[in-house]
Amino acid sequence: MSSESPSIVVLGAGVAGLCAALYLQRSGQRVLVIDAQPPASGTSYGNAGLISKDTAVPIALPGMMRKVPRWLTDREGPLRVSPSYMPAATPWLWRWIQAGQMSHVLRISDAMRALHKDALDCWRELLGAEDYDDLIRPVGQVRIWEGEGAGAQIELDICRRHGIEHRQLDQAAIRDLYPEIAPDITQGLLIPGNAYTVNPQRLVRTLARKLAEAGGQVLTERVVKIIPREGGGYRLMNNVANHHVRRVVVSAGAWSTELLAPLGVAIPLETERGYHAMMPSPNLKLKVPMSVKNRGFGLTSMEEGLRAAGTVEIAGLQAPPDERRAEVLVRHARRIFPKLQTGEPAYWLGHRPSSPDSLPFIGPVPGHEGLYLCLGHGHFGMTGGPPSGRLLSRLVSGQAPGFDPAPYAVDRF
């Protein structure tokens, strides 16, 4: 980075922040990224690695309200809400339930499709051909359902709505892809246009390297407050210094609300806590990553082993991890693959930054000149991060956005 002061600071060195930073730097901005941890140390490290450009199905769907009571009493279920955190989470959960009405699902799906469809093109643009081929596998993704397959029809309808290539799998086709799968798994859906990364952390840290090569900078500091300055711009007060800058992009994941609240900026952002179990030295390797929809988790073969990742726990930012949520992922994996053997799993907790409608917040903050958001990607950070970064860069630079940014507006709620 040159000795000149940055023209814009991005707060957050996860996938969304670094994608925005790299697009901004390449557009001619002088970019500084600040994060309390090194790049890809949070949710960008421990996710399932799925890059789902042909997925346009939001998390909240019709019929989920009927399942919530059963989920809440099942400690191994896909959703758990901490009783002590329920009062704080209720407003967000109510909006989440409303977003699951079919009329809203179709509108949200259209916005997801507009954002996600160029995800792999953006990854290739950001990484270059060599790093793209090293880190990303465009082999598709498979969804499976146990039992009645609730939700499968909605996914099929949305694929047809958007002209997304898909193939329904019968038991024989599933066993062809996964010879070791449990014999009672009889239905699935292949989305061949989707992809995955063999190492989410290495992928995102490659973005940080590309940013440095382009002249940007990443600082490991903790910003504690964004303070508006008289005459415009912001003072960033942190643990070791202050930075003065005209424009700021908040991309700090689930912790973003702590930076926005003192400015009077309120967005419905909740942390959907997710877990993973990384199982080293597995005796099987998946050709194509798999999502087990009724159990709320996925399985991905990565460089370090087989990763089982997912489920949702609503318990806030401060509650300690509940390792039982990670242990159950190992049991789920062995339910799907009864002969699975691995080394001792490593457990992890991350904090997905989630909006009620599965859409991120991208763009300027009304009433706060020079302040922008690029956050709230929830379950879709590895997919939505790159096109969101491109969109944010275009909005900052005054370029044509390429598609309607209104569905991701900061003040849409």
Features:
single chain; alpha/beta; FAD/NAD(P)-binding domain; D-Amino Acid Oxidase, Chain A, domain 2; 9-stranded mixed sheet; 21 strands
**CATH domain class of the largest domain:** Alpha Beta
The CATH topology of the largest domain is what?
A: D-Amino Acid Oxidase, Chain A, domain 2
Choose one word for the global shape: globular
Distance between the termini: 38 Å
Question: What is the number of independent domains?
Answer: 2
Number of strands: 21
Which CATH-level-2 architecture of the largest domain?
Answer: 2-Layer Sandwich
β content, as a range? Answer: 15-25%
Gyration radius from CA atoms, angstroms: 21 Å
Q: What is the typical, i.e. mean, pLDDT?
A: 95
Fourth-tier CATH superfamily name of the largest domain: D-Amino Acid Oxidase, subunit A, domain 2
List unreliable stretches of 5+ residues.
none
Counting DSSP H or I runs of 4 or more residues, the number of helices is 13
Largest sheet: 9 strands, mixed
Helix/sheet category: alpha/beta
Helix content: 25-40%
What does this molecule look like?
The protein is α/β, with parallel strands linked by helices and 413 residues long. It has two domains: 8-45 and 202-268 and 358-408, FAD/NAD(P)-binding domain (3-Layer(bba) Sandwich), CATH 3.50.50.60; 65-103 and 130-197 and 269-354, D-Amino Acid Oxidase, subunit A, domain 2 (D-Amino Acid Oxidase, Chain A, domain 2, 2-Layer Sandwich). Helix content is 33%, strand content 24%. The chain is built from 13 helices and 21 strands. The protein has helices at 15-26, 43-46, 64-73, 86-99, 102-116, 119-127, 129-135, 152-161, 171-177, 200-213, 256-260, 323-336, 381-397; strands at residues 8-11, 31-35, 50-51, 79-81, 136-137, 141-144, 167-169, 188-191, 195-197, 217-220, 223-228, 234-238, 242-245, 248-250, 270-279, 290-292, 297-302, 305-314, 346-354, 361-364, 371-375. The strands form four sheets. Strands 4, 6, 7, 8, 15, 16, 17, 18 and 19 form a nine-stranded mixed beta sheet that branches. The protein has a six-stranded mixed beta sheet with strand order 10-2-1-14-21-20. A hairpin with a 6-residue loop joins β20 and β21 (371-375). α1 (15-26) packs parallel to α10, α1 (15-26) runs parallel beside α13 and α6 crosses α7. The two termini are 38 Å apart. The mean pLDDT is 95.
